[in-house]
Amino acid sequence: MKKIVHVFTVSMSVIFLEGLYEKLKSKGYELIVICSDGEEVRHQERLGNVKYYPVNMSRGINPIKDLSALIKIISILKKEKPLIVHGHTPKGGILAMMAAKLLKIKHRPYHLHGLKYPSEVGAKRLIIKWMEKMTISLSTKVFAVSNSLKEFAIASGLGSNLKIMVLLNGSVKGIDIKDSEEIRKNKEQTAIRLGIKKNEVTIGFVGRITEEKGIFELLKAYKRLIGSKQNIGLILCGPTEIKNSQNSVVFDEIRELPNVQYFGQVHNPLEYMVCCDIFVLPSWREGFGLVNIEANSVGLPVITTDIVGCKDSIEDQKTGILIESNNVCDLIDALELLIEDPALRKEMGQNGIQRVRDLYDRNKIWNTLLEEYERMIKAVKA
Asked: What residue stretches are annotated with the Glycosyl transferase family domain (predicted)?
């Protein structure tokens, strides 16, 4: 059996592989996952989708823990002898590429999900950028999740056009088209089952509740809008990772505002999205913005920022509206336009459904990845 190892920093990142398990099995691959322990990867192990090795990896810079993790990964790779080692996320990526290079494993793809260093300052920024450059140099192929991310990485001197590619039209895993269709059909029943209150217009957000996702720009915009528009609501989904204690107080206050519903981290975000009328991702930094095409897939217009990644995920003025990042006034203008124009919301939502079908079908994205794997396997045999 052909063995492929995927290395992630944390367990929850195995969601990046949704829909790939069955395709790999059908082509005679054994999928091995290395990451920090967690229920997400254990669940896939119980289902028989992966063979799993727990290796504790620190998301931050920690030389002692990093060396320990590297030694463990080398030991696992020696035992399993995979044909391909596929790295993901900054820490999992660099450790995977280092271990595979040391063992002379010929094919070492790295999935570039985004770049963290532009939002850092000082020495930390330099170290993280060096780590990304090192990871890409040790890899044999880089899969960027968007064209604008690829262009930014090349312009920043991280890699070449020959090494960095985008699978199909981008995104990490695309959209399960049939699943989105079923969710759209069952919108009313889903809202009742989840206990979602109905408003004339509901704004949705899915993502980590943290500053860099632009959540506080959204909360400020909502607070201003409810002064003149009593008919709107706000649905928030995602784990809280607020770094500033003052912002924690603000978030708690916003949750008490009229028609705000916070559900925390949810299993199936599309079920919450379909109960909204407008989706907003005012992020400062993204590799692609998967939630934007998820929202489009269930018929929502999307307001998102004109930054690397996000600007690829929608078509401005057709499936949504691009705004300047960290600009509350821009966000309010876009929200007011869509709140006041239900016909425009419907048109953009329908355009979004079609664009997702055309560009981001999950089956097609995974087929493209499998073609890349097959080329690698043939090269190994040759």
From this structure: 189-354
Given this chain, do its domains 2-174+362-381 and 177-359 carry the same CATH topology? Answer: yes
Q: 3-state class of 9 per DSSP? A: coil
Report residue 380's pLDDT band, with 50, 70 and 90 as the boundaries: low
Asked if 201 and 231 touch (Cβ cutoff 8 Å), the reply is yes
Task: Tell me how far CA of residue 148 lies from CA of 152, 178, 183, 278, in angstroms.
Answer: 6, 28, 30, 25
State the SS3 of 257-278.
CCCEEECCCCCCHHHHHCCCCE
Per-residue burial over 302-340, b = 16 or more CB atoms within 10 Å of its CB, e = otherwise: bbbbebbbbbbbbbeeebbbbbebbbbebbbebbeebbe
Instruction: List pLDDT tens digits, range 12-44.
Output: 999 999 999 999 999 999 999 999 999 999 999
Residues 6+ apart with CB under 8 A from 157: 133
In 3D, which of 275, 252, 269, 271 has the Cα closest to residue 201? 275
- pTM given for the model: 0.94
Q: Do β-strands 2-7 and 84-88 pair in parallel, antiparallel, or remain unpaired?
A: parallel
In one-letter notation, the amino acid at residue 8 is: F
- Within 8 A by CB and 6+ apart from 167, the residues are 143, 365, 368, 369, 372
CATH of range 2-174+362-381; options 3.40.1050.10, 3.40.50.10860, 3.40.50.2000, 3.50.50.60: 3.40.50.2000
Give 114's DSSP letter.
Answer: -
**Intra-chain end-to-end CA distance of the chain, in Å:** 18
Domain ranges of the chain: 2-174+362-381, 177-359
Tens of pLDDT, residues 273-303: 999 999 999 999 999 999 999 999 999 999 9
CATH classification code of 177-359: 3.40.50.2000
Output the DSSP codes for 333-364: HHHHHHHH-HHHHHHHHHHHHHHHHHH-BHHH
